[in-house]
Amino acid sequence: MESQLPVLVLLLSCLILISQSAKAAPNPSPTPIKAVNLGGWLVTEGWITPNLFDEIPVNKDLLDGTQIQLKSVTKNNYLSANNGGGSAILASQSSASGWETFNLWRITETTFQFRVFNWQFLGLDDQDNLVATSTSSSDSDSSHTFEIVRNDDDPNRIRIRAPNGSFLEVKPEGLVTADYSEDTNWGDDDPSIFLLTNVRQLQGEFQVTNGYGPDKAPSAMMNHWNNFIVEDDFKFMSENGLNAVRIPVGWWIRFDQNPPHPFVGGSLQALDNAFSWAEEYNVKVIINLQAAPGSQNVWDHSGTRDGTQSWGKTDDTIKETVVVIDFLTSRYANRSGLYAIELLNEPLAPGVTLDRLEKYYKAGYDTVRKYSDVYVIMSNRLSIRNPTELIQFASGFSGSVIDVHYYNLFSTLFEDMTVQQNIDYVKKYRAYTIKSLTVPNGPLIFIGEWVDEMDVSDASKDDYQRFGVAQLEVYGKATFGWSYWTLKNVEIHWSLEWMIKNEYITL
Ligand SMILES: *[C@@H]1O[C@H](CO)[C@@H](O)[C@H](O)[C@H]1NC(C)=O
Ligand SMILES: *[C@@H]1O[C@H](CO)[C@@H](O)[C@H](O)[C@H]1NC(C)=O
To answer: Which residue puts its alpha carbon closest to atom 3 of ligand 1?
Structure first.
């Protein structure tokens, strides 16, 4: 008896503390949501829907942002931008890495601009030698536009027609000059022949729309929007224990039918449909700005053209993004389905600084509040050491939510983990982090993306079930709730629809 008394006192004082902080909170705690993302729908991600790229008619392996390397057959060396750019291009390197890698801009089906490691564009100097000195360009700038001519039998054997009309050739000393004629035997003795290696491809909205081009893109995208997600999917969600949906959208949605090139109109109509279906099946909608003007990270899903990340670097990109939030909130503020607006998905540090991000989050929050008292979600930056960096800041805004994404992937940390180690990691480390994010009078916490996938090659159905249960248990403690990435995906574990139908996950 005696020894239990201090414990009781402690317990009581804890209870009093908890009830006091709950009273002081501006908004009552909501019931945490169980949501799913509609990834790959209104913002293309080729790894989710590879078939969407199938019908691109010409050079579908050379879309915007594709990284290529070029080896001269006569010199047996790669073209290289010394110091990553700023001077001449030489056929000087026997192996290839960053300085030997070129990022494509696709101008037409067969013409391209090339950006080097430090992002300068290829062009010719006054002696018609190949250089990488220009820091800006545009699609209409023909002085940076080259034609790629591929060999019919071996498409990775190419020639490059320079802006002055002649083909590039490698001189014996390694200089590259635009003075080779039309004639070729495509042989290993022809200094105008290069071997092309495709190192990496981007497969986002810019790539798919520009790949199809202005004639074919509108129907290809419309077909995708109308068929990838349909009314029945909302019925499926409501019948399987899901009560919310997080819908990624791109900044171009605000232009409705007339977005800037190469994006095409129609995604706004699809979002309207989603609202109607969501309301019919009692599913709450979170609009998530997945792709912001200038791109807030380097990946396909930020709408980037070539992997550059320039969101937040200027006030213009922040202002333009606020306009998108204004458009979306004013359009849907009166819809009963609207539950939250997520201001920005996965801003990447250090390119996006905390200072710029907070400036935007304040402006974005105030913009939402002009129309609506729905929750306002602020995404944590990726690649940061301190996951609580926004907690204090967000505490100043009532109805704010911090979004964190948890994947036991994309890091060497998880490479050699067993199934049990993955489960333990979630139960210990993730649970601890969620706890540390959850403070009295602070923002609500949202696990806006997670997946029942791990870096274990021979995991069984039972393993996936156990890993799923562990994650549901831990993420179920998040005060705002969670959202699985994603509803549909050719990668089965990334498809919650598949996981539910095949009884890997039960909600
Ligand atoms: C391109 O420049 C080279 C070197 O100055 C020159 O020999 C060639 O004739 C030029 N090509 C055209 C089509 O003007
Ligand atoms: C939304 O509702 C408010 C208040 O009922 C009304 O004043 C406003 O015009 C509505 N906005 C739209 C876009 O329907």
So the answer is: 179
